[in-house]
Amino acid sequence: MKKLFKISLLVSVTVISFVIFYYSLKANNKNNPNIMLNKPLPAIELTSLVNAHLKQELPLINRDKYYLINIWSSWCVPCREEHPILMKLKDKIKIYGINYKDKKTNATAFLNKLGNPFYFTGSDKDGSISIEIGAYGIPETYVVNSQGLIIFKHVGPLNKKIYLRISEIIK
User: Fold this and answer.
1) What pTM does this model have?
2) What is the pLDDT of residues 23-55, one digit of tens each?
């Protein structure tokens, strides 16, 4: 009887703890995938994937009407799935790639094989840059306007529907 009581108490405490944890996550804005939407892109400096001496600072203010940021990796299957969409978008908008926690040789082989849609590709070896701009998984895609505001965010691979939506935004 005493053992059954201890097991029941342990299960009850576990369930209550889980419920509290779940609702605290839900209430915490840091776990909202759109937390950065309509907010300024944080100032970041990307170091080139292929040449560590080249740097690109973002956001770009008043240079282009819009630009796109895509977080990707060679080991990411959905990134491979969305790649043809990025290749189509590159003729419509400058795309800045952030290569997430990847090996340089794997990332460059990926781009050499499938094509390079990126105007500039920066390396994010530890994932800190991606986290700073509000990413929590890959692939993720952002449209940034000329004032440096994130006006669109898509979590997951791009598809035809999202391609059309981005195309409409950047007209």
Assistant:
1) 0.80
2) 433 433 344 556 778 899 999 999 999 999 999
Token pair, residue 108, equals 């460059």
- Residues 100-146 have pLDDT tens digits of 999 999 999 999 999 999 999 999 999 999 999 999 889 999 999 99
Which structure tokens are listed for 80? 């491979």
Q: 135, 37 in Cβ contact below 8 A?
A: no
Output the CATH code of domain 35-169: 3.40.30.10
Tell whether the torsion through CA atoms of 150, 153, 157 and 162 is positive or negative.
negative
pLDDT digits (tens, 9 = 90+) for 72-82: 999 999 999 99
Q: What distance, in Å, lies between the first and last C-alpha atoms of the chain?
A: 71
43 touches 144 (CB < 8 A): no
| Domain residue ranges of the chain, discontinuous segments joined by + | 1-31, 35-169
Q: Which residues is 149 bridged to in the sheet?
A: 40
Angle between helices 160-169 and 77-89 (to 10 degrees): 40
Residue 96 CB-half CA count within 13 A:
23
Distance CA 171, CA 167 (A): 6
